[in-house]
């Protein structure tokens, strides 16, 4: 730690402030202790780099160091050494907490979600397996371990159902049948597709955790699918046939005359496919009035037009405000 | 446990807006809901880390979720590893020796 700060940062003695900042950042990124949790020496290197930067990025301190008035820790020469700038106030770092149980709040699976991959039980399973193999009799039949995988499924695949191929880390592939209507977070169990059994023992299972990717247009509510459909003023007032995307392709929908924004139309059977005794769900289309580009003829018409008396779209807001 | 006000005083250079945005993005997950957040030691350390990544290491907020996600995965693996280590510590010498034999076997 008592190295020359120029050497520590790897810069020339006449380096300008920019070069020093750049060198510091490069080294700090590399040695930041929280980015190198297993590496005890990283903290020392990071402190040295920070201390060197503290000294060289401060014009006065740097000048005093260059004149030999202070040493590389920022202390007056010939004075008993106290704690240097890199040593004082040992603050506990993120890594000091993150590896303890407290760190589970910041699990990789995100807030609130159960961790994908293996949980405590799986760990117990695996070690159970280890020790069953290892506990004295290192041979004998044993069931293969269960393996857990995560599979991202496109929204439309959860509507019609699908078969998806999962490539495992060891190169094997698994064909996973996605039943229609599967919910996000469901775990599918493929019997006998996990770890190989030992000496005639049965193979373990593959546990597939399904993550349903959200769709830009469609939302699922139970077995029904919802969609917001923009319509023009003309289509809403006069009625029209408009193309509507559904999970199974585009269909033509009749918008009745005198429709208003928020009106819900139902396309029967266009929701989750019939499956396992459940009838097919429906697609609910909610009209959203889209005014869009306006030309002079519409403007002129509206200026000369008096809405029917007694129509107040904000009538419901009165008492509520 | 400290409040968001105390946190912003304790961590130099920290703006309340930043913390609230980080909470919204789930980068920081204090106890309690909006308006009555309580930050534990790990949350404070994490706030310091995010601030340090952004200010000192110039990781911008667009890249931060990538960095945090990788870090979270790294620490999750390390927690699991620690748990494995603890379990091994609890196991008897015979079982450890058996495990060692298994590892030796696997290397061949």
Automatic annotation (TrEMBL), chain A:
A single Gene Ontology CC term: cytoplasm
Keyword Chaperone listed: yes
Segments of this protein annotated with the region Disordered: 28-94
Name of protein: J domain-containing protein
Any Pfam family matching the protein: DnaJ_C
Gene3D superfamilies the record matches: DnaJ domain (1.10.287.110), Urease metallochaperone UreE, N-terminal domain (2.60.260.20)
Biased composition range(s): Basic and acidic residues: 56-79
Keywords for the protein's UniProt record, in alphabetical order: Chaperone
Keyword Ribosomal protein: no
TM region positions: none
GO molecular function, one term: unfolded protein binding
Annotated source species: Lichenicoccus roseus
Species classification: Bacteria, Pseudomonadati, Pseudomonadota, Alphaproteobacteria, Acetobacterales
Record-linked InterPro entries: DnaJ_C (IPR002939), DnaJ_domain (IPR001623), DnaJ_domain_CS (IPR018253), HSP40/DnaJ_pept-bd (IPR008971), J_dom_sf (IPR036869)
Any single biological process term in GO: protein refolding
Coiled coil: none
Positions of the J domain: 4-69
UniProtKB/TrEMBL annotation, chain B:
Superkingdom field: Bacteria
Stated name of the protein: MerR family transcriptional regulator
Naturally occurring in which organism (per UniProt): Lichenicoccus roseus
Source taxonomy: Bacteria, Pseudomonadati, Pseudomonadota, Alphaproteobacteria, Acetobacterales
């Amino acid at each position: 730690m008592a190295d020359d700060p120029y050497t520590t940062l790897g810069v020339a003695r006449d380096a300008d402030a920019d070069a020093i900042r750049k060198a510091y950042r490069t080294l700090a990124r590399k040695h930041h202790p929280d980015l190198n949790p297993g590496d005890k020496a990283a903290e020392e290197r990071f402190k040295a780099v920070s201390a060197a930067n503290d000294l060289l990025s401060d014009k006065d301190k740097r000048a005093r160091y260059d004149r030999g008035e202070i040493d590389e820790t920022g202390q007056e020469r010939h004075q008993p050494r106290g704690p240097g700038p890199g040593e004082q106030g040992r603050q506990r770092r993120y890594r000091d907490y993150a590896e303890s149980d407290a760190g589970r709040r910041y699990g990789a699976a995100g807030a609130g979600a159960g961790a994908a991959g293996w949980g405590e039980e799986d760990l117990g399973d695996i070690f159970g397996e280890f020790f069953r193999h290892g506990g004295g009799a290192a041979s004998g039949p044993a069931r293969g371990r269960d393996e857990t995988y995560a599979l991202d499924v496109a929204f439309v695949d959860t509507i019609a159902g699908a078969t998806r191929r999962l490539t495992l880390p060891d190169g094997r592939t698994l064909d996973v049948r996605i039943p229609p209507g599967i919910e996000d977070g469901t775990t599918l169990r493929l019997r006998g597709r996990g770890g190989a059994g030992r000496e005639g023992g049965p193979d373990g299972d593959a546990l597939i955790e399904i993550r349903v990717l959200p769709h830009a247009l469609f939302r699922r509510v139970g077995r029904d699918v919802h969609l917001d459909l923009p319509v023009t003023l003309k289509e809403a007032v006069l009625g029209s046939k408009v193309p509507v995307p559904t999970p199974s392709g585009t269909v033509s929908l009749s918008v009745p005359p005198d429709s208003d924004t928020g009106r819900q139309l139902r396309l029967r059977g266009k929701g989750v496919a019939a499956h396992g005794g459940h009838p097919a769900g429906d697609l609910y289309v909610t009209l959203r009035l889209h005014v869009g580009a306006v030309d002079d003829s519409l403007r002129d018409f509206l200026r000369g037009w008096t809405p029917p008396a007694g129509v107040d779209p904000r009538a419901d807001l009165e008492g509520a405000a | 446990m400290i409040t968001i006000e105390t946190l912003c005083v304790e961590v130099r250079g920290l703006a309340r807006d930043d913390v609230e945005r980080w909470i919204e993005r789930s980068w920081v997950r204090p106890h309690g809901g909006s308006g009555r957040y309580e930050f534990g030691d790990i949350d404070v350390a994490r706030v310091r880390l995010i601030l340090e990544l952004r200010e000192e290491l110039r990781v911008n907020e667009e890249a931060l979720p990538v960095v945090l996600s990788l870090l979270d995965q790294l620490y999750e693996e390390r927690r699991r590893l620690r748990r494995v280590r603890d379990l091994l510590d609890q196991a008897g010498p015979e079982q450890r020796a058996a495990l060692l034999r298994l590892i030796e076997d696997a290397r061949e």
